[in-house]
TrEMBL record:
One of its GO terms (biological process) is DNA repair. Residues 1-17 have a biased composition (Basic and acidic residues). One of its GO terms (molecular function) is damaged DNA binding. Belongs to the WD repeat DDB2/WDR76 family. It comes from Rousettus aegyptiacus. It is found in: Nucleus. Keywords: DNA damage, DNA repair, DNA-binding, Nucleus, Repeat, Ubl conjugation pathway, WD repeat. This is Damage-specific DNA-binding protein 2. Its main location: nucleus. It comes from the Eukaryota. The keyword Coiled coil does not apply. GO terms for cellular component: Cul4-RING E3 ubiquitin ligase complex; nucleus. Residues 1-34 are annotated as: Disordered. The keyword DNA-binding applies.
């Protein structure tokens, strides 16, 4: 009698069910655990339960990358973010802001580079611009009138400093490579010379005006700083010490 062959039995493949990690589970799957985070007190409302639920879900989910500058700096202060990531956040924020910038107006009255700029203290749309050739433009870009143009001497007349007179905003101070610090009006007339050099090797390369102290300060190319009052009287001249 022939022996019967036993029918081959296929092994049922084992299915291993792994629990999803908290990072990959959906909010619905996390809901039971979120409810455990809330201790429901007597008389608590449904609104409170819902708020507590989503607060729990938020604590279980991974936070999104920090893109806010203040938050990035705060995280860096707490030691939660390295400085390169903070720098990246700052760069991204700056680049995003550039997308909203547009050229509003432009003017090109000079045949040489623009060397100094000054905003009018009481008219936000008025700007004074000095050039390497000593030319000065008074530009009110809020109106369509042609800008006021004051012709300079050309080569050697570079405007190195430009400030409006805080006591009379129809006047402005200039320092230049021409060797002078002077007060001028909008027509280009020189009202007063505050400092002057007669030698071409010396000139003034910086200028500022203090409205509070009523003092004009100017510096030359050999390290001297000169303070004058608004009448042009020299108060003090200080030579800068050479650096070691």
């Amino acid at each position: 009698m022939a022996s019967r062959k036993r029918p081959e039995t296929r092994k049922t493949p084992e299915v291993v069910v792994r629990r999803k990690s908290k990072r990959s589970r959906s909010p619905r799957e996390l809901e039971p655990e979120a409810k455990k985070l809330c201790v429901k007190g007597p008389g608590s409302s449904r609104r409170f339960d819902s708020g507590c639920l989503w607060a729990g879900l938020a604590s279980l989910q991974v936070s999104s990358p920090c893109r806010n500058i203040v938050r990035a700096l705060h995280h860096h202060k707490l030691g939660k973010a390295a400085w390169p990531s903070v720098q990246q956040s700052l760069q991204q924020s700056f680049l995003q802001s550039l997308a909203s910038y547009r050229i509003f107006q432009k003017a090109a009255p000079f045949d040489r580079r623009a060397t100094s700029l000054a905003w009018h203290p009481t008219h936000p749309s008025t700007l004074a611009v000095g050039s390497k050739g000593g030319d000065i433009m008074l530009w009110n870009f809020g109106i369509k009138d042609k800008p006021t143009f004051i012709k300079g001497i050309g080569a050697g007349g570079s405007i190195t400093g430009l400030k409006f007179n805080p006591l009379n905003t129809h006047q402005f101070f200039t320092s230049s490579m021409e060797g002078m610090t002077r007060l001028q009006d909008f027509k280009g007339n020189t009202l007063q010379v505050f400092t002057s050099y007669s030698i071409c090797n010396f000139w003034f390369c910086s200028l500022d005006v203090s409205a509070t102290s009523r003092v004009v300060v100017t510096g030359d190319n050999v390290g001297n700083v000169i303070l004058l009052n608004m009448d042009g009287k020299e108060l003090i001249s200080v030579p800068m010490e050479p650096s070691c």
